[in-house]
Amino acid sequence: MKQAKIISIGPKAIDSHENILILFGEEVTDTLREFSIIQELDESEKLVLKTGSQIKFNDQTYVVEQVGASANEHLNSIGHISVIFDKSPKEDLLGSSSVYVSPYRLPDLSVGDMITYVE
């Protein structure tokens, strides 16, 4: 298990017409910050998300359906994944940092909220 605290939500990070959240660690560029949710990850051991893992936004639980090829590496190194709240395609069409989850609805988020990654 690994926890993160949301420390910033960019003005264009949450769009009710798009079922995606882009998460980054604190070292994100200013250009990406506008479209991202910035998380402060704890310094625990490395995390490996896989099918069946869970991502919890406070008390809202999501089940991982598909993990992109570089998602775990990016999450552990720069705090980055794109969480997609939609059915996973046969191939990861939106990039290798994508993690597809269900249910297919965006969580309610605020600065200070906690994200829990459960393997």
UniProtKB/TrEMBL annotation:
It comes from the Bacteria. Gene3D superfamilies: Phosphotransferase system, glucitol/sorbitol-specific IIA component (2.40.33.40). GO terms for cellular component: cytoplasm. One of its GO terms (biological process) is phosphoenolpyruvate-dependent sugar phosphotransferase system. Pfam families: PTSIIA_gutA. Keywords: Sugar transport, Transport. SUPFAM superfamilies: PTSIIA/GutA-like. One of its GO terms (molecular function) is protein-N(PI)-phosphohistidine-sugar phosphotransferase activity. The keyword NADP does not apply. This is PTS sugar transporter subunit IIA.
